[in-house]
Design brief:
Blueprint lengths: L3 E4 L8 E4 L5 E3 L12 H4 L15 E2 L2 E2 L2 H19 L4 E5 L5 H15 L4 E3 L6 H11 L8 H6 L2 E5 L3 H4 L1 H13 L4 E5 L12 E3 L6 H14 L5 H7 E2 L1 H9 L10 H13 L3 E5 L1 H4 L4 H14 L9 E4 L6 H7 L15 H11 L12 H9 L5 E5 L3 H4 L3 H9 L3 E6 L12 E4 L8 E4 L4 E5 L12 H14 L8 H14 L23 E2 L20 E2 L13 E6 L15 H4 L6 E4 L1 H6 L7 E5 L4 E8 L7 E5 L32 E7 L4 E7 L9 E7 L2 E8 L6 H9 L5 E7 L4 E8 L2 E9 L7 H7 L6 H6 L12 E3 L4 E2 H9 L5 H8 L9 H8 L10
Parallel strand pairs: 6-7, 6-14, 8-9, 8-12, 9-10, 11-20, 12-13, 14-15, 15-16, 21-25, 22-24
Antiparallel strand pairs: 1-2, 2-3, 4-5, 4-16, 17-18, 18-19, 21-26, 22-25, 23-24, 23-26, 27-29, 27-32, 28-29, 30-31, 31-32, 33-34
Helix pairs in contact: 2-19, 3-19, 3-20, 4-13, 8-10, 8-11, 8-13, 16-18
The structure holds ligand MGD (2 copies), iron/sulfur cluster and molybdenum atom (MO).
The site of iron/sulfur cluster has 14 residues, from helix 1 and helix 7.
Protein name: Nitrate reductase
Pfam families: Fer2_BFD (PF04324), Molybdop_Fe4S4 (PF04879), Molybdopterin (PF00384), Molydop_binding (PF01568)
Keywords: 4Fe-4S, Iron, Iron-sulfur, Metal-binding, Molybdenum, Nitrate assimilation, Oxidoreductase
Length: 858
């Protein structure tokens, strides 16, 4: 079988994948990001490429339409808005999941032809603070780090990064080095204990936003200990005195760490020249995100620990093409190819190259401001591509209202139903991963090809093509007349060539003669190039800048709400939500609550908690765990209105932003919490797709159909009617066990001897083995036996899934540990867990240490 060489569409590690239309997915042994490895999400890609739920034709206001009708309408509405209200009355909101070619033409259309910079991207929620911090320090948005540096380092500091779940293959690479070289030191700085803490020698349970106090303290310590590199500073760095003066005014214990912990970390940092500081959303998504970035960069600059093997700051990017988007200028405050909107020379050069009628004159609206402008009626036409802001923006309810307030909304997506798509006037079907061609740039500046290996489904078209078709209808056909993504790529490379005279870091000449079809994964400006090795930076004086950073003033509500990600889901779950094995890891929206807080809130096992920020609320399953600090809560971002009734965490996150980068502080909500007092709680499994209903409900895919968790404030009049409504089973026979005294109801529905659905309700959270109930759906199990739980007695319940590849449950693993497994290898030998992709290894380690697993409901 000949497999197609492509790149994973999820995280910024950018792993090479070998894929086939039959669903075969393998890690590419030759790709330098992963050398054959894949994590659980990558391994399950084959389960997500089916056409279930796909958007396959254009739609205008819910009705199927032809491409001609849809494109004409989009072009007419955008042209009319520009004509009547000016270029700034329209906006694009795009995504780090677009390919470079898509991104390039979207940016070209908005900035060079429409003439506005109102194109912002979900990278604003993701990398904007890193971009701003890099520009302040280096004079350019240059990521100097490479993955090899992580393997060469003697100390790896992970700040605000849950690498084990969010960049699993990088995490595995580090784990492999640690195994070979146990003296490699790893420090994890995170307010909560995560799967990443498992590999770390030291976990520093920092206060939220305590990072500035920590790194300012480190700078002062390095100076006091004589550990700064004064020659390097004199030759290559400005701003040292001011940065030190600011650092000295700051009390490091404001980080929430003890003097002992601080000293231990500082001494480790001072001692190891080869230190890589990896940072991610715990740093970026904050009201002081850019300052946090610079507080980290200051320490690397003061010690000259940048631009040399095995050391440097390393902002790992989240999305597969976050870097590509930055390169083509996809943010509202950037031009193209790392050039600046504010610089008239840059603007003229780009306009001349594009031969465009105009060029934006000033930065456009950043994401939060953009949706605020929508709410105020300033935006007349909005086009959202490859992102789901009705879920992923802070204050997502407000953002949804804002989108609904825009007179004309276009959404390009691969799925027919998303929370944002539901608000669109026009839906445009894009080809998805495996169906389209293009390039992406990973965290270490490596450009890799995504290649099609599937036929184009329905009428779908690649994003670059859709954008060019609209541009042509707006009157700019000549400038957008590409026949293929490779032509777009060539133009992008040529633009970088044409603007080389400005001496920016983005030099793409290595691709000038590249064979696009056969392009090998290649770093810019070339493989193994070391930025800043010569001490030269991109500020006009050639020096790097240290920035004076003041400690932030923190205001805390009753609970500090931190948010983030789960191992096996990707953002708003439009793709990973299709794979049963990924859903089984954590099937419900949950919130981590400290045991003392849980006691004060009178939470019992399985209870639901209602969070309220004063304006909106959401309901989540309480997961009581000491991994979060008292007074803190943590909830994942993944659940939407498609899968839950009221469990979207961004309903209660604030839209405060970092003043420099405009990045929202998605890690620092302030909410009150109360126990949700349901009149009944339920669980159902069905052959059929179920939709959210009741005050609390969470739907997930299962291996036999669908499951739903439920709770509501009032009991229905008739449980059987309710069970049929929820499970979607209208015919066949019903077996019911109801006990009015206790309020328990168990109902099974079957047709021609096949069990269609089971439904369980009780006045308290339902304790039953979900996995067993799910297994029975679609089988010939007798309904009453199913309800009594008599089937397969004597066969142990595997428990909640830990290993997604081999579907190994927690109870199976605990049993194996009871039978003498003392290591991850033993567990693998006994149960297969962890022997394929390895993403569950941190959890296996946790189990071996007898720590509680993140289980919402079992
Ligand atoms: N499984 C999975 N992987 C993904 C994604 C996904 O959706 N699912 N998305 C991808 C994307 S786009 C991104 S951006 C990355 C994100 O990757 P990460 O940034 O690693 O993930 P998060 O879970 O958002 O947040 C990381 C950690 O920051 C901590 N944190 C919160 N506040 C603070 C603070 O004040 N200081 C410090 N030091 N830490 C803090 C949180 O407790 C959390 O554990 O993941 C990428 N990879
Ligand atoms: N509370 C909280 N909120 C957060 C975060 C957090 O940590 N906490 N993190 C933020 C971050 S870092 C990020 S990056 C965002 C991510 O948030 P989003 O970008 O909104 O999330 P996705 O689910 O990845 O949305 C991608 C959409 O594009 C569609 N799609 C997939 N492939 C294609 C394609 O080829 N073409 C087109 N046109 N569409 C496609 C998918 O179906 C999906 O609807 O969330 C942010 N929101
Ligand atoms: S680590 Fe996993 S999600 Fe990220 S690129 Fe690799 S296989 Fe894909
Ligand atoms: Mo992200």
């Amino acid at each position: 079988m000949s497999l197609t060489r492509t790149t994973c569409p999820y995280c910024g590690v950018g792993c090479g994948v070998l894929a086939d239309a039959d669903g075969t997915i393998k890690g590419d042994p030759e790709h330098p990001a992963n050398y054959g490895r894949l994590c659980s999400k990558g391994s399950a890609l084959g389960e997500t490429i089916n056409l279930d739920g796909r958007l396959l034709t254009p739609q205008i206001r819910g009705q199927r339409a032809s491409w001609t009708e849809a494109l004409d309408l989009v072009a007419d509405e955008f042209s009319a808005a520009v004509r009547d209200h000016g270029p700034d009355s329209v906006a694009f909101y795009v995504s780090g999941q677009l390919l470079t070619e898509d991104y390039y033409v979207a940016n070209k259309l908005m900035k060079g032809f429409i003439g506005s910079a109102n194109i912002d991207t979900n990278s604003r929620l993701c990398m904007a603070s890193s971009v701003a911090g890099h520009k302040r320090a280096f004079g350019s948005d240059t990521v100097p780090g490479t993955y090899d540096d992580l393997e060469e380092a003697d100390l790896i500091v992970l700040v605000g990064s849950n690498l084990a779940w969010c960049h699993p293959v990088l995490h595995q690479r580090i784990a492999a080095v640690k195994e070979k070289r146990p003296d490699l030191r790893i420090v994890n700085i995170d307010p909560r204990l995560t799967a990443t803490s498992e590999l770390a020698d030291i976990h520093l349970k920092i206060s939220p936003d305590g990072d500035i106090a920590l790194f300012n303290g480190l700078l002062a310590y390095l100076v006091a200990e004589g550990m700064v590199d004064t020659d390097y500073i004199t030759a290559n760095v400005s701003g040292f005195d001011e940065a030190l003066a600011a650092a000295k005014t700051c009390d490091p214990t404001e980080s929430g760490l003890s003097a002992r912990d601080l000293l231990q970390f500082y001494a480790l940092w001072a001692k190891n020249r080869k230190v890589v500081t990896v940072y991610s959303q715990g740093v970026n998504q904050s009201e002081c995100g850019t300052d946090k970035v610079n507080a980290i960069l200051n320490c690397h600059l003061a010690t000259g620990r940048v631009g040399a093997p095995g050391c440097g700051p390393f902002s790992v990017t989240g999305q597969p093409n976050a870097m590509g988007g930055r390169e083509v200028g996809g943010l509202a405050n950037m031009l193209a190819n790392h050039l600046d909107i504010e610089n008239s020379g840059h603007r003229d050069a780009v306009q001349m190259f594009w031969e465009s009628p105009t060029i934006c004159q000033q930065p456009g609206l950043k994401a939060v401001d953009l949706f605020e402008a929508c709410a105020r009626g300033k935006i007349k036409a909005l086009w959202v591509m490859s992102t789901n802001p009705a879920v992923s923006m802070p204050d997502a309810n407000g953002v949804s209202d804002a989108i609904a307030n825009v007179p004309f909304v276009v959404v390009s997506d691969i799925m027919a139903r998303t929370d944002t798509g539901d608000l669109a006037d026009v839906l445009l079907p894009a080809t998805g991963w495996g169906e389209k061609d293009g390039t992406v740039t990973n965290s270490e500046r490596r450009v890799s090809r995504q290649r099609a290996f599937l036929p184009t489904p329905g009428d779908a078209r690649p994003d670059w093509k859709i954008i060019c078709d609209v541009a042509a209808r707006m009157g700019w056909g000549d400038a957008f007349s590409y026949d293929s993504p490779s032509e777009v790529f060539s133009e992008y490379i040529a633009l970088s060539e044409a603007t080389r005279t400005f001496g920016r870091d983005l030099d793409l000449s290595v691709f000038a003669d590249a064979d696009y079809a056969a392009l090998l994964p290649t770093q810019w400006p070339q493989n193994n190039h070391r930025f800043f090795a010569d001490g030269k930076f991109y500020h006009p004086d050639g020096k790097a800048r240290m920035v004076a950073i003041a400690t932030p003033i923190r205001s805390l509500g009753s609970f500090r709400l931190n948010t983030g990600r789960n191992r096996d889901q990707w953002h708003t779950m439009t793709r990973t939500g299709k794979a049963p094995r990924l859903g089984a890891h954590l099937a419900e929206p949950y919130v981590e609550v400290h045991p003392d807080d849980a006691a004060a809130l009178e939470l019992e096992p399985g209870d639901l908690v209602q969070l309220n920020n004063g304006a909106n609320d959401c309901i989540l399953r309480a997961l009581v765990t000491p991994r979060v600090a008292q007074g803190h809560l943590f909830a994942p971002m993944h659940w939407t209105r498609q899968r839950t009734s009221r469990s979207m965490i961004n309903s209660v996150t604030p839209s405060q932003t970092d003043p420099v980068s405009g990045q929202p502080a998605l890690k620092s909500g302030s909410v009150s919490a109360t126990r949700f007092k349901g009149a009944w709680y339920g669980f159902a499994a069905s052959l059929f797709e179920m939709r959210p209903t009741a005050a609390y409900s969470a739907v997930a895919r299962t291996s036999t159909g669908w499951q739903i968790e439920l709770a509501d404030l009032a009991c229905p009049d008739d449980w059987t009617v309710e069970a049929r409504r929820i499970t979607g089973v209208s015919g066949g026979e019903v077996a019911a066990i109801e006990d009015p005294a206790t309020g328990l109801a168990r109902i099974a529905m079957s047709e021609r001897g096949i069990l269609q659905a089971v439904f369980f309700a009780a006045p308290r959270p339902v304790a039953l083995s979900r996995s067993k109930a799910i297994e029975l759906i679609g089988t010939s199990a007798a309904p009453f036996d199913a309800l009594a739980g008599r089937i397969k007695l004597g066969q142990p319940d595997p428990g909640v899934q830990v290993c997604a590849c081999f579907n190994v449950g927690r109870n199976t693993l605990i049993t194996a540990i009871g039978h003498g497994s003392v290591s991850i290898e033993d567990l693998g030998a006994q149960t297969c867990a962890g022997t394929n992709c390895g993403s569950c290894k941190p959890e296996l380690a946790m189990l071996l240490r007898n720590a509680a697993l993140p289980v919402a409901a079992e």
